[in-house]
Amino acid sequence: MVLPLRAIACQILFTFISVAIEAGVLQQRLGLTRRTSTYYAAIANLICAFFGWIAFFYIVSIFQDTQLMQQLVSYIFTGRFTVDSEPIEIAIVVGAIGIFFIGWFVKSLSLYIFQKIWILPIENLSWYEQVDKAHSERLVRYHIKSAQDRAILVGHAMSHTTILFLLILTIFVF
Q1: Which domain holds residue 35?
Q2: Looking at residue 122, what DSSP letter applies?
Q3: What span, in angstroms and rounded, lies between the C-alpha atoms of 22 and 146?
Q4: Assessment of whether the complete model's pTM goes beyond 0.90
Q5: How many angstroms separate the CA atoms of 91 and 89, rounded?
Q6: Which of 83, 90, 140, 158 is the most buried (most CB within 10 A)?
Q7: Is the pLDDT score of 47 beyond 90?
Q8: For the chain, how many structural domains are there in total?
C-alpha cells in the first residue's frame, strides 16, 4: 500500500488555510463569535474533505483506465503530470468549477443542518428581533438564510482562490 504523503500534507495545509479564511469571513459578515465561526468552518471543511476523498476514490475506481485519471493520480502522488499526455486542461477547469460549487453546497447544507439540530445556533440576536417587527417570520428566515449563503460563498471563494494561487505557485516553483 502506498500512501500519498504529499497529498495528505497538502490536504491538511489547505484545510487550515480554508478554516482561517472562512472563519474570518463568517465572523465579520454574520456577527458570530470567533469560536463559533471557527467551529463551523472547521467542521464544514472536514465534511467537505471527507466527502471529497470518498468521491475521488469512487470516480477513480470507475474511470481508472482513462488518461485523465492516470494524470490525476500522477499529480496527487508526485506533484507532476506525466509528460506524454493528452491535453486535459478543459477537464481540469470543468472539474474545478464543479468541485467549487459542490463544496459550497455541502458547506451551506451543513450550516443549515447544524442550525436545525441546534449544534450551531445563530448568535446574532438582531436577526431574531426582526421577527417581532416583521409581518412574516418566513421572510426574516429567508433574509437570514440568504445572508448566511452569501457569507459562505464569499469565504469559500476566498479560500479556493488562495488554494488555487498556492497550487499554481507550487507548479512554477517546485
Answers
A1: 5-173
A2: -
A3: 17
A4: no
A5: 5
A6: 140
A7: yes
A8: 1
